[in-house]
Amino acid sequence: MANLVALSPCEGLLPQTIGAVTIAEIDPGPVTAILPFKGQDKAVGEALKSALGLGFPAPGRSQSKGGARAIWVGKGEALLMGAACPDLAGAACVDQSDAWCVVEIVGDRAEDVLARLVPLDLRASQFKRGHTARTLLGRMTASATRSGAKAFEIMVFRSMAETLVEELTRAAGAVAARG
Amino acid sequence: MRIPCPICGTRDRREFTYQGAAELLRRPAPDAGDAAWDDYLHNRDNPCGEARDLWFHEAGCGAWLVVERDTATHEVMGAELAEKVAS
Amino acid sequence: MRIEGRGLCQSNTSVPFTFDGERLTGREGDTLAAALIANDKRVVGRSFKYHRPRGILTAGSEEPNALVTIGHGPQQDPNVRATVQELYEGLEARSQNAFPSVSFDLMAVNDLMSPFLGAGFYYKTFMWPKNFWEKLYEPIIRRAAGLGALSGLTNEDTYEKAYAFCDVLVIGAGPTGLMAALGAARAGADVIVADEDSRMGGRLLAETGEVDGKPGHAWAADIVAELATMDNVRLMHRTAVTGAYDQGTYGALERVGQHHPHQPGKPLECFWRIVARRAILCAGALERPVAFPNNDRPGIMTAGAVRAYLNRWGVVAGRKVAVFANNDGAHRTALDLMAAGVDVSAVIDSRAEAQALGDYKLFTGAQVIGTKGRKGLESLSIRQSDRTLRIEAECLAVSGGWNPSVHLACHMNGRPEWNAETLSFLPRDGMVPGMTAAGAARGQFSTAACLADGARVAKEVVIELGLTPSDTAMPRAEDRPYRIEELWAVEGRGRKWLDFQNDVHVKDVRLAAQENFRSVEHMKRYTTQGMATDQGKNSNVAALAVLADATGRGIPETGTTTFRPPYTPVSIAAMGAGSQGEGFAPKRVTTSHTASVDRGAPMIEAGLWYRPSYFPKPDERTWQESCNREVTMVRNAVGICDVSTLGKIDIQGPDAAAFLDFVYTNTFSTLKVGRVRYGLMLREDGHVMDDGTTARMGKSHFVMTTTTAAAGLVMRHLAWVSQALRPDLDVVFTSATEQWAQFAVAGPKSRDLLDAVVDGGIDPESWPFMACGEVDVMGVRGRLFRISFSGEHAYEIAVPAGYGAALYRVLLAQAETMGGGAYGMEALNVMRIEKGHITHAEIHGRTTAFDIGFEGMVSKKTDCVGFSASRRPGLLEESREQLVGLHPVDPAGKLTAGAHLFEDRAEPVRTNDHGYVTSVCHSPTLGHDLALGFLTNGRARHGETIKMVDHLRGVTTLARVCDPVFFDKEGARVRG
To answer: ipTM of the assembly?
Structure first.
């Protein structure tokens, strides 16, 4: 019997370049939600460190090492992306590889485009490279991370991929139309 | 309106869901009797001035907060994690 | 009239536009108002109530008269202020509230009737008979009175909303604002400068005075240029800050695409939410007219507007101009006009001690007591001591003093304070936390005072922000004293207008006082003073001064009406930007969405999700036919249905089982690993919140399923319980809904189907009813649950969502070889009703476990959420409405959802109500309609005949009460 073939959340929708921004889907690789049990934060952080060289991120922060990244996504929860989850006795590790739609928006006007959708202070002085936040994008709950001087990574739940692309392209179109 | 989430920092109120007075944290014992439960479930003050409310940072970190604010001036004095208040 | 050589924009590019269909030309840089004045258009609108001809009064956003409609068709935009609208090639403007035209308006008959239409006229006249109001009076009044109209067509234009953040928001970019911005920016603060004008500079663009040895406008341009080069400064032109809100949030409306011909895709407006640590209110001041008889004739303008039109745009509203004022500043109007070669016929000053500043004819201690002119001003009568004179003028520049723009400072309920020296209301400190007023907005009226005040406040603010202020040299500028004497209204024959937009005159306000509407808020409602688009920016202070006089109180005691946002009108389209059509809510689609749509399934919304309603075959004409076939297919063969929308919560931790025991009414700590159990969740008040199955995947690992509708609610509830009620429990959880694509495989052939798909097949021994575990599906690790909502032998199979589309296709192809296929929400609903399974139609928030017959699930020794409240006597009485099944006595009888239940012979009225129907279907399995519903003491009434009455649809059917499980009561099929 043939094997099942996987589709990405934004299959056929991205990439798109609109004015000064490019919106592209990112394959995050394996994604695992890590939720340390009571009093295990430190042990889990150390176990992550010895296995992958990165720790459990503080609220609002992300870490990366090689291809692996750890992004804080909520109270007591981080996503390990781009690496298989090591054995962590002190935490719940939940596979979320297919749960998130991950896109990157890059370009001179990326911050302007997101300012139309996200109620977050995205100024480079406040929201630096590696900073991350759980917030809203339009009416969707989202995760936003600054991935570069002019680049942001946005995650929403997979089922809302189409709406995410619509919101981003609409905002980008309006920003581009201002010239 | 902006709420100072102890985990995320000050955020737009759109990220939060309002629940009601912080008295909901003082859950009576199962056998506390009908009067205590009735009070817990249904009776609330309606203060003009300082109030302690529960807000859920639903589109943020997922923490339940006790927010201290003034219903007359709209000043928000602060917020703490409901978990800390409860335990 | 255009004055050559005057105006800031010296390009001679002419800009063609139309006004009421007439082709006219203006000049680059003109507002529509400036261009109309250049073209000698005097009457530009008709007043709201009396349809009096009105001309341009001001040169700013406070304009009450010159409201026009721009564009046509879906893009028609009413009530645009001609004083704000920038001219562009092809601009199409029309006057409003006149028929057939502004110069000849039939509705002006209202003006002749005006003795009968005074304040309170409508309240007094149309009170009786009562029903005449809605049917007769209101429609007539609405047609006669009014502003511009919408087209009624769908507007496809783009609007935006956006957020911005800064350390210092500077509101207004006049001399004060520019100095404030410079001070804050040079100290390193992140600054946003928002100014409603197309060009920054404020009054410096309208006056001839010099700043720092250069023309004021040139100095402003230099400062703006410097600010524009700074990375920490954002200049927002055409952006009116419209509201001050909590915690340093400000609303602002930016005009993005309204000053040039329509550009597809470019937003017309953007509504900003600006969050600022500090704000400096440099909104300036607005000049107020004086109420004198017939002071509303076109050609009568504020003095500051006359200077603005002359100095900024090079236009004058008449060949001969007179000035009427109670302060020194207005005299500059005469000087500027004379310097431009315009004939100034007189300056009339109400102050006895007034001095002429130049070579013009000055009447001191004099007042204007009347005006003449058919379509606009031709002459004035003035009174000086006991003599009356006639003076020729086509334009009268009036100044009754200036009102600081305190509006934003008052948006959080603060009241401004009366200042007897400047005869104006000034903001108090701290009215809006974090906001400080500076310059003319706090009564500093000379240019030098404004510059100094802007710099001073900026310094204060940067120190508070922890920055070091930089030394900025103070530019030199005029520092003339204000010198004003009180003058609100001039006595004499004829109406003395206060509020031009709402046609309120002095007598109306006095009448209000006489009829005991003495509070300023009552006066406002009684007379309509200060309502509509301009909110009385020109007239409120004068009106309350008249009220103070009429009631014998002072102005401070009388006070102001409440200032509320928005400062200037904000279009609903801007506030609702992005929310049209599907933009209103996110759309959640399952991995089988495309396949379902390809099969012609109509999609229905379930919360934010889209789910297939049914899958029509070519020969099926109605949904019912498709639904019947799908039900029969599942009952006899096998059906596939995407159930990924149900909430899935992954719960882990040493205390995971104890946590579930607390949130569910029933026990989960006793559940074996590899098994699933149905659970019921209560709210703390004892009513049912949600239900669903929870699978134990490991000793301390559970996967909870919620209903599609309550997934978010349950997540919030679990967070509440773990953080607030049971922080002692060591448990963590996260939503796994989106990770899994999950499909129900239901029907007697479901095992055979899965046998062919699951690697290694399905061993009946290992997969009894309510078993769960991991399986491999065509090389992919997935999960299998033997659970059933249909009442058939059924499974739910889950794979990571990326594989969902592929698995769905495989399952369907396999099912179709076995006489099965896809089924939708309609069939799913029929089968669950046949089995008496509840949904949120039944657990609608007012039902208890007792009501649905599940009180046994609450009977336990340990505490759980809702346990105590569910034991309250009122929630356990037999007389409560209890869940029952209903089927029609006549098999052809119709049952309808929402219908009410009555005893057979009782009259179907509320007092005889015995319950209601929650869910209805036609059962192809049993050949008749079925219903679930709630009936008083229903469990004891099985077998009884009851009357179902649907008042809304006009259906009455006799039904028999029965057990809610209609089909396979013993559950033989599900276990088989």
So the answer is: 0.98
Quote the domain boundaries for residue B31.
Answer: 2-86
Omega within 30 of 0 (cis) for the link into C481: no
CA distance A97 to chain C (A): 7
Model pLDDT, residue A163? 97
CA A83 – CA A88 distance, rounded (Å): 14
Q: For the packed helices C175-186 and C447-464, what is the interaxial angle rounded to 10 degrees?
A: 30
- Domain residue extents for chain A: 16-27+98-177, 31-95
- Segment holding A165, helix H or strand E: helix A161-177
State whether A133 and B58 contact (CB < 8 Å). Answer: no
Cα C577 off chain centre by: 9
> How big is chain C, counted in residues?
976
C594-597 long-range contacts, Cβ below 8 Å, gap at least 24?
C594/C805, C595/C805, C595/C808, C595/C809, C595/C812, C596/C642, C596/C822, C596/C824
Q: Name the packing angle between helices C825-834 and C623-636 (round to 10°).
A: 60
Spatial contact of C895 and C911, defined as CB atoms under 8 Å apart: no
* Closest-CA residue to C560 (of C418, C399, C430, C400): C418
Q: Which residues in chain B are closer than 8 Å to C732, comparing Cβ atoms?
A: none
Subunit contact C734:A33, Cβ cutoff 8 A: yes
**pTM metric for this prediction:** 0.94
Residue C719 neighbours by CB under 8 Å, 6+ apart: B56, B62, B63, B64
Nearest residue to C947 via CA among C920, C973, C912 = C912
The helix (run of H) or strand (run of E) holding residue C402 is strand C402-404
**Probe site for chain A from B15, B16, B57, B65 (most A CB atoms < 10 A):** B15
Domains identified in chain B, total number: 1
What are the average pLDDT values for consecutive 10-residue runs of chain C, which has 976 residues?
90 92 96 98 86 93 96 92 97 83 69 70 60 64 67 90 98 98 98 98 97 97 98 98 98 97 94 98 98 97 98 97 97 97 97 95 97 94 95 98 97 95 95 97 97 98 97 93 96 94 93 94 92 91 95 94 94 92 93 98 96 97 98 98 98 98 95 97 96 97 96 97 97 98 98 96 94 96 97 98 98 97 98 97 95 85 89 89 98 97 96 98 97 97 97 97 96 91
Query: Best of B11, B17, B81 to disrupt the A interface by mutation (most A CBs within 10 Å)?
Result: B11
Burial letters C39-72, b for 16+ CB under 10 A, else e: bebbbbbbbbbbbbbbbbbbbbbbbbbbbbbbbe
* pLDDT score at C130: 62
C859 touches chain B (CB under 8 A): no
- DSSP sequence for B32-55: S-HHHHHHHHH-----SSEEEEEE
For chain B, say whether C867 makes contact (Cβ under 8 Å): yes
Interface check C12 vs B, CB under 8 A = no
CATH number at residue B51: 3.30.2270.10
Tokens of C662: 């607390």
CB contact under 8 A, B17 and C716: yes
pLDDT tens-digit readout, A92-105: 999 999 999 999 99
CATH fold of A16-27+98-177, please?
Gyrase A; domain 2 (3.30.1360)
SS3 labels along C730-779: CCEEEECCCCEEEEEEECCCHHHHHHHHECCCCCCCCCCCCEEEEEEECC
d(CA C529, CA C145): 15
Torsion sign across C-alpha atoms C706, C702, B17, A146: negative
For chain C, domains (ranges, CATH) are 1-150 (3.10.20.440), 159-285+404-464 (3.50.50.60), 289-400 (3.50.50.60), 488-569 (1.10.10), 600-645+739-832 (3.30.1360.120), 647-735 (3.30.70.1400), 876-975 (2.40.30.110)
